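To: structure desk
From: M.T.
Subject: fold request, one chain
Message: Could you run this one when you get a chance? Sequence is below, nothing fancy, just the single chain.
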Amino acid sequence: MKNWLSKKNTSPSHNAYAVVTGAGSGIGRSFAMELASRQSQVVCSDINLAAAEETAERIRKAGGKAYAVRCDVGNAEEVAQLADEAEALLGHPVSLVINNAGVGIGGKFDEMSLDDWHWCMNINLWGVIHGCHHFVPRFKRQGHGAIINVASAASYTAAPEMSVYNVTKAGVLALSETLSSELKKNNIKVNVLCPTLVPTNIIKSGRLPGRYSKLADHALMNYSMTTSEAVAKLTLDRLDKGQLYTTPQVDAKVFWMMKRASPKWYTNLLGLSYQFFK
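Reply: Done. Structure tokens follow.
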């Protein structure tokens, strides 16, 4: 197969040299496993090194090449070190970065402390900013690259009692849209993933009040219309096709169309629904 790094090749997920943050579980692990099945070499990064190593070991047992690196994406210096270490481990410049690491948080706006805001912003938004900041210049210098940023349907649905989470994911969506147009001339592809419910550990690792956590965990495990494996595959396929947005579930698409068609009507409906069901 001709190397995808040729400008004529449009398959950045195949034979890639990839870095995946939050690769210790959930969607991040599924991204890493799917990339390995596409003959890509993967640096599995996670704040939990043991979890990252478990993902890497699964890939190695399946015959792929993978490495585990601990990284706190909220720390700019650690992400800079990740970029250097990944290139050294792979023995090749990184060609794809997936900024996946994230946490969940919920509650009424006036119940959210500034510590909650800083904690979530640091991981969900700054983590993505740090990833783009340290990899985009490398991609520009080498004349190619690809980025997947994991946002959420929360980035545009703006559901009540999710203000902190909504804001971080809206920032990821806006950043991805900006980079997509800005980096086209540099042969750098961008995709932003906006799912609704996907069974992952985000509830267990997040900050949700007791009244939310059991309900949210039950919804994730019982009412999700997809799997993390299916989401990873679809997102990589859409990246290969040069598509900017990945909204994997029907409900994510419906919310997207409603919001785009009439933002005022959508917001009013959301407010009325919240008052009724409260």
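Reply (cont.): The chain has a mean pLDDT of 89. Let me know if you need anything else for the meeting.
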